[in-house]
Design a protein that fits this description.
InterPro entries: ANTAR, CheY-like_superfamily, GAF, GAF-like_dom_sf, GAF_ANTAR, WH-like_DNA-bd_sf. The chain is an alpha+beta fold and 253 residues long. It is 53% helix and 15% strand.
Length: 253
């Protein structure tokens, strides 16, 4: 069955329209296996993102710099990891102009190869600014998992025609590993935050139980009431109590 248009769902994870073939060997499989283990060992989500961009430059042929564009609240995007200032400036040029391979990869579910920035006509305002920065070619891959988009992996080079079919093939496999690692790191960080919040509220309840001889339910109800009366998040009420020994009131806001 033929693939849908590049904007359709079946364009996800597929090469760009310039792709004519690919080549790969056992060495790539070993590299990607090592990458998966390395990313799994990172302690925080940010460390995972930083490791991804560093590994992208080392793994994908032609890449001199790399960055990760991450979707925030579904429509906003920001660069959360990069190998250098050039990446952040080039990404900002795309965000400012609302055009570029990074945004197409993120929102149109496709791989985008830009061979020569000086002869590119698809994104005139972005390419003008990118050329001024010294960027000459780009390769962007959408990062996604089953439940939603994560953003894009963007590879940069100061050389024209830096990326070929092998770059795309390796990059597509790399992006798949990176997306899974990013998703897993996010879930772990959310879990850590949830545990930290639970522990903080538990400490605050303990303070109230000891001070006022309350049950756990009564102490929690008191925290909730303080949160409602001060229009403050429950976790902030708990943190204030643990830090100061006082239950937050309207006057404390």
């Amino acid at each position: 069955m033929a693939a849908r248009d590049a904007n359709g769902d079946k364009g996800r994870g597929r090469p760009s329209s310039a792709f004519t073939g690919h080549a790969a060997g056992d060495e790539l499989a070993v590299k990607l296996s090592d990458l998966a283990r390395t990313l799994q060992d990172e302690d925080t989500a940010q460390e995972t993102l930083d490791a991804i961009v560093g590994a992208a430059v080392d793994t994908v042929p032609g890449a001199q710099d790399a960055g990760l564009t991450v979707v925030i609240r579904r429509r906003e995007v920001e660069t959360q990891a990069s190998t250098g200032d050039l990446v952040r400036q080039a990404d900002k040029a795309q965000y400012d102009t609302g055009e570029g391979p990074c945004l197409d990869a993120t929102y149109k579910h496709r791989t985008v190869r830009l061979p020569d920035m000086t002869h590119e006509e698809r994104w005139p305002e972005f390419t003008r600014r990118a050329v001024e920065l010294g960027v000459r070619s780009m390769l962007s891959f959408q990062l996604y998992v089953h439940k939603g988009d994560l953003g894009a992996l963007n590879l940069y080079s100061r050389e024209r025609n830096a990326f070929d079919d092998e770059s795309e093939h390796v990059g597509l496999l790399f992006a798949a590993h990176a997306a899974v690692a990013m998703s897993g790191a996010r879930q772990q960080e959310q879990l850590r935050r949830a545990i930290a919040v639970r522990d903080l509220i538990g400490q605050a309840k303990g303070v109230l139980m000891e001070r006022h001889k309350l049950t756990a339910d009564q102490a929690f109800s008191l925290l909730v009431r303080a949160s409602q009366q001060t229009n403050t998040k429950l976790v902030e009420v708990a943190e204030y109590l643990v830090d100061t020994g006082e239950l937050r009131t309207r006057e404390d806001r």
